[in-house]
Amino acid sequence: MNEKEFLHQLKSRLDEDTESLDAETLSRLNRSRQTALAQLDKKKSWFTMPAWIPATGGLATVMLLTSVMLFKAEDIAITADSDTVEMEIIAAQDSFELYEQLDFYLWLAEEEVSAS
């Protein structure tokens, strides 16, 4: 027996059993069917989802942003400090000769520290 034959026999037996049902049972089955179909017709929208689902997503987003800001704050501060130093050097009215011979002045400072 293949699948088509099985389904055909099953359908014919179910049809026979349905014809032998009393009116009250048929009425109850029809009401149950109509209720089930009415439930399918109701379209689920995002308004019907539980309130905790969007709240959880919002909380996760806030935690992620806070973590990123906390861990990246040092990098941002270091970058800002180095940029500030460079801007101070550029904006200063000092002669650039000091910066051209910066290695000499650094060596001189080290010699003074080691001599002390």
Structural summary, described in words:
This protein has 116 residues and is mainly α. The chain folds into 2 domains: 42 residues, no CATH class; 66 residues, no CATH class. The longest helix has 40 residues.
Counted up, domains total 2
Assign the structural class, choosing from mainly alpha, mainly beta, alpha/beta, alpha+beta, or little secondary structure: mainly alpha
Strand content: under 5%
Give the number of DSSP strands: 0
The overall pLDDT, averaged over residues, is 77
Cα-based radius of gyration, to the nearest Å? 41 Å
Q: Please tally the helical runs, counting DSSP H or I stretches of 4 or more residues.
A: 5
> What is the terminal separation in angstroms?
105 Å
Order of helices and strands: HHHHH
Report the principal-axis shape.
Answer: rod-shaped
Main sheet record? none
Which features does this protein show?
116 residues, mainly alpha, 2 domains
Short description, anyone?
By secondary structure, the chain is mainly α. It has helices at residues 3-19, 23-41, 52-91, 97-100, 102-115.
